[in-house]
Design a protein that fits this description.
The complex is a heterodimer of chains A (about 260) and B (about 850).
Chain A lengths: L2 H4 L2 H6 L25 E5 L2 E5 L5 E3 L4 E4 L6 H7 L8 H16 L3 E4 L9 H4 L2 H13 L1 E5 L14 E3 L1 E4 L2 E4 L10 E4 L4 E7 L2 E10 L3 E3 L10 E2 L3 H6 L7 E5 L4 E3 L6
Parallel strand pairs in A: 4-5, 5-6, 6-7, 9-10, 10-13, 11-14
Antiparallel strand pairs in A: 1-2, 2-3, 3-4, 8-9, 11-12, 12-13, 12-15, 15-16
Helix pairs in contact in A: 4-6
Chain B lengths: L7 H8 L5 H11 L4 E4 L6 H19 L10 E4 L3 H17 L6 E4 L5 H9 L4 E4 L1 H8 L4 H4 L5 E4 L2 H4 L3 H16 L4 E6 L5 H7 L12 E4 L7 E4 L17 H10 L3 E4 L3 H13 L7 E4 L5 H12 L5 E4 L14 E5 L5 H8 L11 E5 L3 H16 L12 H14 L4 H9 L9 H13 L13 E3 L5 E3 L2 H9 L9 E6 L1 E3 L2 E3 L4 E6 H4 L7 E4 L2 E9 L2 E6 L19 H12 L1 H5 L3 H13 L8 E8 L2 E6 L5 H17 L4 E6 L4 E5 L3 H4 L7 H4 L7 H7 L3 H13 L21 H11 L4 H12 L4 H11 L3 E5 L8 H6 L10 H17 L1
Parallel strand pairs in B: 1-6, 1-7, 2-4, 2-5, 3-4, 5-6, 8-13, 9-11, 9-12, 10-11, 12-13, 16-22, 23-27
Antiparallel strand pairs in B: 14-15, 16-19, 17-18, 20-21, 21-22, 23-24, 24-26, 25-26
The chains are: A alpha/beta (about 260), B alpha/beta (about 850).
Amino acid sequence: MSLDDRRSPYGIGAMTAFSLPGPQAPGRTTRRPRRPAEPLAARLAGIEAVLDPTGALYWPAEGTLVVSDLHLETGSSYARSGQMLPPYDTGLTLARLAEAMARHRPDRVISLGDSFHDRRGAERIAGADRKRLLALTEAAHFIWVTGNHEADSARILPGEVHEAYALGGVTFRHIPTEGTPAGREVAGHLHPAAWVTVRGRTLRRRCFFGCAERLVMPAFGCLTGGLSVADAAFRALWPDPSGTRALLLGQDRVYALPVARR
Amino acid sequence: MRTLPEPFAGWFAHRGWTPRDHQLDLVEKAEAGRSSLLIAPTGAGKTLAGFLPSLIDLDREKRRRNTPLRDGPHTLYVSPLKALAVDIARNLGAPIAEMDLPITIETRTGDTPQSRRRRQKEKPPDIMLTTAEQVALLISQTDAERYFSELKVVIVDELHSLVTSKRGDLLALCLARLRRYAPGLRTVGLSATVADPDALRAWLMPQDGDPPALSDLIVVEGGAKPDLSILKTDQRVPWSGHMTRWAVGDVYGLIKAHKTTLVFVNTRSQAELLFHELWRINEDTLPIALHHGSLQVEQRRKVEAAMGRNALRAVVCTSTLDLGIDWGDVDLVVHVGAPKGASRLAQRIGRANHRMDEPSKAILVPSNRFEVMECQAALDASYLGHQDTPAINDGAIDVLCQHVLGSAVAEAFDALELYDEIVSTYAYRKLDWETFERVVDFVATGGYALRAYERYQKIRRRKDGRWRISHPAIAQQYRLNIGTIVELASLPVRLVSRKNGVLKGRGPILGQLEEYFLNSLAPGDTFLFAGQVLRLEAVRENEVLVTRTTQTEPKIPYYGGSKFPLTTYLASRVRAMLADPERRAALPDQVKDWLALQGERSRLPKMDELLVETFPRANRHYLVAYPFEGRLAHQTLGMLLTRRLERLGLHPMGFVASDYAIAIWSVGDLSAFFDGKRHTMASLFAEDMLGDDLDEWLADSMLLKRTFRACAQVAQLIERRHPGKEKTGRQITVSTDLVYDVLRSHEPDHVLLRATWADAATGLLDIRRLGQMLARVKHDIVHQRLEKISPLAVPIMLEIGREVVQGEGSETLLAEAADALVQEAMA
C-alpha cells in the first residue's frame, strides 16, 4: 500500500488509532518554502539596530550580534527530571544562530546569559551539537554574559566571560536593572512575548521589547516559552509605558504592531 | 414470584415499595456471577438497582465471617462526576442505616484529604465511591494486588458518557488490571439509552478475539413520553446567531409560569448572556441562578444545594448539569439553542420530573431559522426514541502511555503479560505489538530516533526482563500527574474594589478565565462572568483582578471548545426535511416561506445532494455550500477549500463555518471559473483534499497544537505538576507549541504525533466525518450559479464579521495586520 493510498478518505474511514499513519510521511517536509528573511531596522537603547527574525539583534556600527537566553540543552535538562522533551533543541537553536551569523557576518557575538538551560549544560553538550557550537565560536569572538540559570557554565567554552559587558556606551547584562538604569542597557532574562488580535484571532509571538533607553531581548532558545509584555515584571521596568515598543518575531519578518498592555 | 432476601424484602415493604423487575434481575445476575449492563431512563431507580446486589452480598458475608474487616473493598463504584459520588453516598446512607446493615461506605475523590485516604488503605470501606483517576492511583500502589484481592464488583455509572472519553480508556485499562487481581470480578454498567448497547456490553467484559464477548443486558423501557414542544412565539426568529436574545422575554414568561425550570444552553458564553438578560427583565426578582464549569466550585455547590431545597425558580446551566444528580422538583426544562443531538436532548429532558411514570415537560427555543429545522428534527427524533450517541473510539495512545508508566510504578511488569492484559480491553483490543513497543520506548526514553536519553530512562528493563521505574521519584511524579482531564491554561478571577483610583480588598474568587480570552482584553474592558458585568483592572500575581461595573454592554466571555457540533443523525434529518415538501409544510410560517423562496431563487437540495452556490456581491465572489456536517468538519473543509482555491489562483480571502454551511469569499470570479467544463465543483470537492492539502495545513494548525498539548500532558511527556518544585515564573516553562514544532520537523512519525492526529481526526478537526461526507456526495454535487445571494445563504453570510474568520495561516494574518497599519498611516 502506498502512502497516498493510506491517506485516502476511504483509508481514514477505516483507520483506527493504532493504524493511522503519521500526519506526514517520513522524509518529506511540509514546511512552506521560506521567503528570504527580512530584518527590520530600528533604534532601540541608543543602538541603530537591525532586528533579525530569528530573535538576534545586529549592531552594524560595532559589528556585533546580540542573542539572549539560548537555553541550550533544554531537552536534556528536562530529561534528567523525567520529562523526555525532544533532544533536538540544541541543534535547532544553534542552526538558527548560525543562520543569523551567516546573514550578518559579525566580528563579535554577545550571548546575554542563560546560554545553557542549567549549570551542567555546557558539560552535557556533545557530538554534532558540540562541534557546531565550537565552529561558531571560531567564526566570531564570543562574549558570554553570565545568567542566572547556568552560573559560569560557559567558562569551559572559547570566548570571554563577563557578568556585564560594556560596548559603545551600552551595558549588556542578563537581568535588567530594576527601576531606571544609569545608562543605556540591553538585557534578556524575561523572554518577552506579545499577543496581538487580528480579525478575531489572537496570536502570540516572541518580541523585542524596549524604548530609546533600554531593551529586553527575546529568548532565542527554540523551546523557550515567553512572558507577556503585559506582565508586572515589565511594568516594573517601564512604569510609564509610553515610548515602549514591541517588535514581534514572525517566521521571516519582524513586525512592529500595537500590543495590548495592562 | 421473585423476592429479595431479608432484611431487604422487609425494608422495601416498610417503604411501601415493590422491587422492580430490573432490580431483581440485577440481583439474580450477581448471584450467578454475571456482568451486566443496565439501560434505564432517569428516575428508574437505576443507582439503587446497581448497589442492591452488593448490599445483599456484603450483609451475608459479614454475618458469615467472624471478622468484619476485609483486605479491601467489596464494591467499587466509579462515576464521571465527583458530585455524583457524594450524592450517592448520601442516598445509600438511608437504607444502610434503616436496615442497620454492617456495611461501610465512603467516597474517595480528588478532594478527599490525605489522612482519610491513608485510613482507607488500612481500614478499607466495603463500598468505595470513586473516580477513574483514583482507581488508577490505587492500582499504582505496591500492595494493590492484596488490596483488591477481595473485590467482587465494579459499578460504572453513566457508562454511556464515560466510554467516549479518555477517562473511559483509563478506567478500561484499570479494569483489566483489577480482573487479574480479583479473578471472577463482575462489572455492572449503568447507562442511559444509547445507539449501540453492544459496544457498552463488550466494554464491560474481558475480550479474547472475535466476536467480542458481551455482558448480559437489562433494559428498562422508557416511561411516559415527554411533553416536548418548540416555543410558540410572536417574535420574529432571526436569520442567524446563537445568543437567542430574541426569546428572553418568552423564556422569562415560562419560568414565571412554572415551579422550577432548568434552562439548558450549549455554551458557557450563552449561559452568561442569557442569565444576564433574564436578570435585566426580572421584575419579580425570581431566584434565578447560574451554573457552568468555569465558576468556582463553592459557588456551584451552593446553587446545587439551593436547587435541592427547591429554593430556586430557575437555573441557567450547561452540560455540567447533564449527568444524573438528583434534583428537587423540576417541572420544566427549557432548551435554548438547538440541542445538537437527540440523545443529549433526551438526557436533558430527563432532568425534569424525576419520576418515571410522569411525562417530563420540555420546550425547545431555536436561536435562528436553521435551528428551527434542527429543533423540529430533534423533536421527531426523541419521539422516535432514536439515539445518536457517539461510537466508542479506539483507546487513546496518550492514556496508554500513562498506564504503562503506572504499571511500572506498581510493580515490575513483563511486557508481554502487560500487552495481553491491555488487549483484553475492548477499547485496546486492536492494539498491535509494534505500537505497544513504541509506547514502552516512549515511556522509557521519549522514544526518539536519536537515542540521547538512555541514561535518564524513567523505566528500565531489569536483568529478569521485567520493567520497573528507575527511581522512586518517578512514582511520585506519576501520581501527581495522573488523569486525563487537561484544563486549558486559565487564571482565577478575583473581585476587588477600587477606591480613589487604588485597588483594594481581596474579594472572593469568582471562577477561572481562560488565558486565550484574557489576552484579548485590555484594562478597562468589561465582560460578563459569573453572572455579573465585570471590569478588568489588572493581572497581578497570576490572578485577574476585577471590579463590578454598572456598564451594560459588556464583551462576552469566550470559552474554548465548548460548542457541540450537530450530530450526523440530526444532520441527516435536517437534510431530509429540506428535501421533503410535506415535512417543510409542517414548519412555522416564517421558516416555510423562507424555504419556499429558496426553491424559487435557487434550489432546495435533495436528500443526498451537496448544494453549492456561487454568486457575486459587492466586488467579491462568494461560494456557499451546505454540507450540514457540523461546525468542526466545516472548519476543516473551509481550510482545505481555501488552500485549493488559492492554488487555482482565485485568491480566497477568508471563510466562515456554521453547523450547516460554509461561505468562502474570493477576489476571483468563482461562477466563471467553475464553468462545469474546464473546472467543476466536483473536482474542487474531490476527496483527495484529505491528502497533501490537509498535511500542509496541519503544519500551522492551532487546533492540532492544542490537541498535542493535551496528549503531551496525559502521556506525561510534560508534567502539569512537579514534586517539590513550585513554578518560579511562567517565563521558564517550556512551550508545548514549540515542542510540537520541533517534534514535527524532526520526528514526524513519533508516537505522540500519531496520538495527536488520531485525537484530532475524530475531535477538533472531525476529519472522519468530513471524509464520509465527501465520499457520499461525490456524484451528487449540484452547482448553482446565481446572480445574487440566495435566501438559504443569508444566515451564513450574516456570520461574516461576527464569527472569527479562519482560513489564513498566522503568518499571513500578522503580515496583514502590519500592512493595515501602514495603510492607516499613509492615508
